[in-house]
Write a structure and sequence with these properties.
This protein is mostly helical. It has one helix and no strands. The chain has one domain. It is flat.
């Protein structure tokens, strides 16, 4: 289980996708961004 004690909800993923397609992420490239709530 992750640090939040629950599985990701669609909104959790959507917020990251929204950020990645916005101008705020224009300097991010070639990164792996795990959407696992801090689980190892």
């Amino acid at each position: 289980m992750n640090n939040f004690g629950r599985l990701a909800a669609p909104i959790d993923i959507a917020k990251v996708v929204e950020f990645l397609v916005s101008d705020n992420s224009r300097w991010i490239s070639g990164q792996v961004i795990p959407l696992n709530g801090g689980a190892v």
